[in-house]
Amino acid sequence: MSNQIELRHYRYFLALAEDLHFRKAAESLYISQPGLSRQIKQMEEYLGISLFERHNRKVILTKAGSYLQTELIKNFKQLDEIINHAKLVNDGLDGNLKLGYVGSAMQDVIPELLLKFKQHHPKVLFSLNEMDNKKQIQALLNQEIDIGFVRMERVPRGLNIRSVFEDTFSLVLPKNHPINEDNFTSLSQLKDESFIFFDASYSESYYEKVMQIFDKRGFAPLISHYTVNASSIFRLVENNFGVSLVPTSLKLGYDMGIKFIELNKIPQRTTLRIVWNTTNTNPILANFLNLTKAK
Fold first, then answer.
1. What residue segments make up the domains of the chain, in order of their start?
2. What is the pLDDT of residues 213-260, one digit of tens each?
3. Residue 92 has pLDDT above 70, yes or no
4. pLDDT per position as a tens digit, 110-133
5. b/e per residue 187-207 (b: at least 16 CB within 10 A)
6. What average pLDDT does the segment 97-111 reach?
7. Which residues lie closer than 8 Å to 251 by C-beta, 6 or more apart?
8. φ, ψ for residue 32 (rounded to 5)?
9. Dihedral sign for Cα atoms in the order 30, 36, 42, 44
10. What pTM was computed for the model?
11. Is the CATH number of domain 2-85 1.10.357.10?
């Protein structure tokens, strides 16, 4: 009997599952409330599943209804992606690849990868969104982006992770700071300075790596500011609010009153990794992953 269910029934169900109110759901669907009630009842009869508990004016999803809602949202989103991809193909493009990234990845790694990819796949449309690590992970789980560029070591089940670039750290100082590359010997010279760091929420593993650097030097940094934006860090340093420690690749693309001292003699490194959802069906994704594997 399930072959009597049409796509509109599922859309009616999702509307009611979201609003949990027949009148509101009916209004959002531009149908009558009795009509919606009848369609939902037909759907339950066809499927042999109780989807809602009805208590006077209150509507509650059953356990089966809640499961169906979750899976339908996931699959409808995939259907939308398929249709959008078909539209791109119709317009002469091979498809769309949505990337999330932390700021440092855009300085060098991503532009290099995109240029290489474009040589072999010139008809791919790229959507780029700067996002912190946690937002990327959630967007990947929801399949709102195809690839994430993160600074973290572990990801939730269902996601894959691979290293693409290992970076040194660099000290960031105001341009007029007395310490420079010629007289710098150790971070201990800056133990009385105020430090400006990426917030731990930016990446807990990255923050721990930075703290390890100071642990090895035998002192805890005096932290005056936290931020999740590199340009904010640099602007604060430029205006003498403190000094900072960042991935070396971040020094590219900025023209401010600051200077960098690369700490290439310390063992600590920060690794940029790509992350993707193992269930992602975007046909462009596999080609992009092959490129990063060869990098």
1. 2-85, 93-166+272-294, 169-268
2. 999 889 999 999 998 788 899 999 999 999 999 999 888 767 789 999
3. no
4. 888 998 988 888 888 888 998 888
5. beebeebbbbbbeeebbeebb
6. 86
7. 107, 170, 172, 260
8. -75, 155
9. positive
10. 0.65
11. no
